[in-house]
User: Which sequence fits this backbone?
């Protein structure tokens, strides 16, 4: 836009506010580089809640607004949207105080991407948030500080922390400025030409200077002693804080309102012991970037360990109190199931409500909650015991912290009429219409919308008020440990559900506005994860994450953590969390932290991609840390395409090349190469997804895992040890395994064939090196009626049936959201009765899954612990241009006669060969390298109910194997006794 000349502006000392904060400013005036002006009161009753926004899942997208036009005072509430602000009245210059394009990176440096030439740069401040852009420049300031331009670059430590602004210009803040109190104000930087013309202005982002001045390692939250209850809150930008103490969880007047005292950004108060068991909220007076006003925010404690229903108030709960510990709790570490190595782990992913909401063998009072896991004779617990006895080690629980969009008080829930839905046609759209009509008022949600990380979710407790949720969560963990399962929590530190100064779901952004959330170049909240991305590159965000992890590990004795969108968290943060956990000992903390496994989604996208905000915890960055990362390459190669591709794209187990489904995959030679490349990807993954594992590619070349490339040129392999890869073919996201197989395979194959493919895919996960991960219900042919995103699809589409009567197939067209485009593909499948499995199919699938676990744990050769062990022992035999399509043959070797140099690991088997045949026909494969062995079909398969696998055969004289169609055959060489 054009530049309008503005008269020269003079700044001088005039009348001044008499507030204590203003007095502090006044006392710092030591030179003529800044001066103070009187403020001009400005009032507004507008709030962010007046507006609705469409969040876009990309950095700095073009603007899209809904409903009312926006005033620039409220644009900061937008998530990752660089929106064109309303023009500043009668001023035509590049200034917009609704944006925050400058960064105060440490006490002495402000970074701004401007060229001031021979002009000047000033920092403006208003204690009462009265800065405004007018025809005369910026007015309403209390204080103005001249900044000195620096001809050099930003300091190296600043660039390391904020690589996205490494090319910004540094401006020096003069010494003697009372920075700590300036940070409590509305702030702006302004560039003025030599002739006094104001040419640019913007707000500031403060995390850098807050970390520089206020990083803190002392107590936070509620601290209990024999005599008192002390509260500590980190809020360096707050102007005043009071705590409201309540006797009851809701309603009524506070029994006390007490002011907190501040020391270097930390506010504290010491109350009587009688506060314990009471509730409280903070009243925070603070400038908020979202509204450009000094707001009075009512907030929970970021370090809350207890809450009232729906998080209305924070509960003063002492987690060390014996009354909220189940019997034997302090000695639970001695009862933990044995875990020798992370390579011994197998993971079963489960949603708390799914587990028992439909289980009629569970007391109705505890269905869908924590205590259902204490029902020792329920159908669900009997099923878990079967899995554990076969070898399963870890139960992964979807989010269990306090999340939004499910009321904690069950009497507020709405329900569908199950009987009426069951009477509808299997391909009807009426089921989804009724489910979605109440989806935000029922009792179901996955929980990836965090409000407070450190408190168990109230809706899973029998009473969401008081300390009930703590006791019941502990009972759940204890009960699962006692049946032999360790417990993994799904933690969501990458985003928060709420932001801004108002609304029940905003907490952190009320206490220190603009600090906890990652912001764009314009100062709008980044939204690439979902909404309100958090910024673990900031010191106190990182600290909060680590402290929270330690709370769950020590106070709830959790055995592992799965990090949602781990790639959006800094690698440094993950390592700090890992080191903090490893330091835990039974003697000091009642926990052996060396047994706690960490893994997560290492996707690299959004504003953090390619280390855009620092070295992030992506798949390629996290290697060498022993932290696990989900292996999406294996998933995509097995089932075909990707979750973002065409739904009919086929893969290794869904008929690619052998049984076309009508989708145009390309010419025959293209399809054959796709299948061969998929087999390479799967083989790399089966070898622990190790970067340096050497195999023969389908082209006949000796290549490392890192030299095998995906379709976009990325390396398939990224791990340096097997526990760094988490192998999976399905999870809560996207369709279930049975559903995706039913969608991608041809319409005319039988349900028996689809069930075999379900087992084939599961077998590849179960028998690979690395950590196998299974979505709950895949072993029961679980269906969500082809719903690809059931996060809010209610109990109806998410039902589990541990009686094995049904797999929930064909219960109506899945909700529109992410499914409507595929309804033409989905509808005929749901309507076709031949797609629906019988109880016999489900029982066979359960048995087959149990047998896979039994085989995995029958030999340590399936669970090799180091890169060297895999390099030395694992080989693939059906490779190169002449390989049999659709067949993968893997051998694992142990010490035996004629093979010196290997350490013996397995007392029973000296050699194992596994053949995975995805062909719809029997295949024979011959390998000279596998001749003259004494290989027999694994005894577990010989005794199984699968009659087809028993036709598997090995000819020692020729070294040939016969493998039935769509079958995994495991051959073992027993040691001589």
Assistant:
């Amino acid at each position: 836009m054009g530049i309008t000349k503005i008269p020269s502006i003079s700044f001088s000392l005039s009348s001044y506010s008499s507030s204590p904060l203003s007095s502090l400013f006044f006392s710092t005036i030591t030179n003529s580089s800044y001066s103070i002006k009187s403020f001009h009161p400005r009032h507004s009753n507008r709030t962010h809640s007046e507006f609705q926004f469409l969040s876009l899942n990309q950095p700095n997208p073009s603007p899209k607004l809904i409903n009312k036009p926006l005033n620039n005072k409220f644009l900061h509430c937008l998530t990752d949207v660089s929106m064109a602000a309303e023009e500043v009245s009668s001023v035509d210059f590049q200034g917009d105080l609704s944006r925050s394009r400058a960064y105060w990176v440490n006490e002495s440096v402000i970074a701004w991407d401007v060229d001031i030439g021979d002009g000047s740069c000033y920092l403006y401040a208003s204690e009462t948030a009265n800065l405004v852009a007018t025809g005369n420049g910026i007015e309403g300031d209390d204080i103005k500080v001249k900044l000195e331009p620096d001809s050099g670059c930003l300091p190296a430590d600043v660039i390391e922390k904020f690589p996205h602004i490494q090319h910004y210009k540094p401006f020096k803040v003069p010494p003697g400025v009372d920075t700590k109190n300036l940070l409590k104000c509305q702030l702006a930087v302004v560039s003025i030409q030599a002739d006094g013309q104001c040419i640019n202005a913007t707000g500031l982002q403060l995390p850098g200077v807050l970390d520089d001045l206020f990083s803190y390692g002392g107590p936070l939250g509620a601290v209990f002693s024999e005599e008192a209850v002390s509260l500590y809150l980190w809020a360096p930008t707050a102007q005043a804080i009071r705590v409201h103490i309540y006797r009851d969880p809701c309603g009524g007047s506070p029994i006390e309102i007490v002011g907190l005292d501040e020391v270097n950004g930390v506010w504290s108060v010491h109350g009587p012991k009688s506060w314990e068991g009471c509730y409280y909220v903070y009243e925070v007076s603070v400038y908020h970037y979202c509204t450009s006003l000094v707001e009075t925010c009512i907030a929970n404690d970021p370090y809350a360990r207890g809450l009232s229903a729906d998080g209305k108030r924070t509960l003063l709960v002492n987690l060390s109190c014996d009354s909220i510990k189940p019997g034997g709790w302090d000695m639970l570490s001695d009862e933990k199931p044995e875990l020798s190595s992370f390579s011994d782990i197998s993971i079963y992913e489960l949603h708390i409500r799914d587990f028992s909401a439909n289980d009629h063998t569970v007391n109705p009072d505890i269905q869908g909650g924590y205590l259902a896991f204490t029902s020792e004779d329920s159908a669900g617990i009997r099923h878990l015991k079967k899995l554990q006895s076969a070898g399963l080690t870890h139960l992964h629980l979807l989010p269990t912290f306090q999340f939004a969009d499910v009321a904690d008080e069950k009497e507020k829930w709405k329900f569908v009429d199950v009987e009426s839905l069951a009477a509808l046609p299997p391909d009807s759209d009426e089921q989804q219409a009724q489910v979605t009509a109440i989806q935000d008022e029922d009792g179901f949600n996955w929980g990836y919308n965090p409000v407070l990380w450190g408190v168990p979710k109230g809706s899973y407790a029998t009473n969401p008020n008081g300390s009930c949720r703590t006791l019941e969560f502990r009972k759940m963990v204890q009960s699962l440990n006692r049946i032999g399962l360790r417990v993994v929590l799904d933690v969501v530190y990458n985003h928060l559900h709420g932001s801004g100064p108002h609304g029940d779901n905003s907490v952190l952004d009320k206490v220190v506005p603009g600090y906890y959330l990652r912001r764009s170049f314009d100062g709008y909240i980044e939204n690439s994860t979902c909404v309100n991305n958090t910024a673990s590159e900031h010191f106190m965000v990182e600290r909060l994450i680590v402290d929270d992890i330690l709370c769950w590990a020590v106070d709830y004795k959790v055995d592992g953590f799965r990090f949602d969108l781990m790639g959006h968290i800094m690698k440094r943060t993950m390592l700090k969390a890992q080191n903090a956990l490893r330091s835990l000992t039974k003697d000091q903390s009642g926990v052996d932290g060396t047994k706690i496994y960490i893994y997560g989604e290492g996707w690299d996208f959004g504003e953090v991609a390619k280390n855009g905000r620092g070295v992030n915890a992506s798949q390629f960055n996290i290697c060498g840390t022993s932290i696990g990362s989900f292996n999406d390459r294996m998933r995509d190669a097995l089932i075909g395409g990707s979750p973002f591709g065409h739904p009919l794209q086929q893969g290794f187990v869904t008929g690619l090349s052998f049984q076309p489904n009508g989708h145009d995959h390309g010419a025959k030679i293209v399809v054959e190469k796709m299948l061969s490349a998929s087999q390479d990807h799967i083989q790399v993954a089966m070898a622990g997804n190790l970067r340096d594992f050497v195999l023969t590619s389908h082209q006949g070349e000796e290549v490392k895992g890192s030299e095998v490339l995906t379709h976009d040129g990325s390396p398939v392999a990224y791990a340096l040890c097997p526990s760094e890869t988490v192998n999976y073919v399905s999870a809560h996201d996207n369709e279930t395994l049975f559903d995706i197989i039913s969608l991608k395979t041809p319409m005319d194959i039988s349900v028996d064939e689809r069930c075999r493919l379900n087992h084939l895919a599961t077998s590849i996960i179960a028998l690979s090196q690395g950590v196998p991960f299974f979505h709950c219900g895949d072993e029961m042919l679980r269906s969500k009626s082809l719903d690809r995103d059931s996060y809010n699809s209610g109990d109806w589409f998410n039902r589990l049936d541990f009686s094995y009567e049904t797999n929930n197939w064909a219960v109506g067209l899945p909700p529109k959201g992410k499914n409507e485009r595929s309804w033409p593909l989905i509808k005929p499948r749901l309507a076709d009765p031949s797609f629906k499995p019988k109880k016999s199919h489900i029982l066979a699938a359960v048995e087959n899954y149990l047998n896979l676990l039994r085989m995995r744990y029958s030999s340590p050769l399936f669970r090799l612990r180091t890169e060297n062990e895999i390099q030395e022992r694992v080989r693939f035999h059906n490779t190169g241009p002449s390989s049999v399509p659709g067949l993968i043959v893997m051998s694992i070797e142990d010490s035996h006669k004629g093979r010196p140099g290997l350490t013996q690991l397995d007392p029973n088997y000296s050699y194992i060969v596994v053949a995975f045949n995805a062909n719809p026909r029997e295949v024979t494969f011959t390998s000279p390298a596998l001749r003259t062995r004494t290989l027999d079909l694994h005894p577990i398969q010989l005794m199984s109910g699968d009659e087809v696998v028993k036709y598997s055969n090995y000819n020692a004289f020729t070294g040939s194997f016969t493998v039935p169609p769509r079958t995994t055959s495991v051959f073992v060489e027993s040691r001589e006794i």
Summary: The first helix runs from residue 20 to 27. The chain has 24 helices and 43 strands. The two ends are 87 Å apart (CA to CA). Residues 433 and 803 are 28 Å apart (CA to CA).
